[in-house]
Specification:
By secondary structure, the protein is an alpha+beta fold. The protein contains 3 helices and 8 strands, in the order αββαβαβββββ. A hairpin with a 4-residue loop joins β4 and β5. It is elongated and about 60 Å long.
């Protein structure tokens, strides 16, 4: 497998210089070509289609000179059901409804109360113990995402 660390570092720097933050970068080598998926974000508003086009046009010519293989570049927002990954995400989406998928497959839905060290806190909203706050260790969690429904 090829090392894409220089490409990823470049993408991160370029996105920041365009006024956005990086939510995720995925590079998949399908053999014939690369698929480069870049998820951008902003703290001050939601990401628009125009924002994705702007970032794509700023990345593509540079990537063409760096990558000597056919590739497809996809730039998009993390979406309404975005995964919560960073401390900034936990702070930004505090008070919003989230879904935790534990490593054992169980799913828990509640209001995100925050993260302290390696523990995420949710308030139960829909059961007979509504209002109860529970903590979940990050080591027991597979994924945390916003719950737009």
């Amino acid at each position: 497998m090829e090392d894409f660390s220089k490409v990823i570092d470049f993408i991160k720097r370029k996105i920041l210089s365009c006024g956005f933050s990086v939510h995720d970068i995925q590079i998949k080598d399908s053999g014939k070509r690369l698929i480069i998926r870049v998820f951008i974000d902003r703290n001050d508003r939601f990401v628009s289609i125009d924002d994705c086009v702007f970032v794509s046009r700023n990345l593509e010519p540079h990537l063409e000179s760096m990558i000597h293989k056919s590739f497809v570049l996809e730039v998009s927002s993390p979406g309404a059901d975005r995964e919560i990954k960073t401390d900034e995400d936990f702070q930004r989406f505090k008070g919003m409804k989230v879904e935790i998928t534990k490593k054992d497959g169980r799913k828990i839905i509640g209001k995100l109360m925050g993260k302290v060290n390696d523990e995420v806190f949710l308030m139960d909203e829909g059961s007979k113990v509504s209002g109860k706050i529970s903590g979940f260790l990050l080591t027991d969690i597979r994924k945390i995402k916003l719950c737009p429904w």
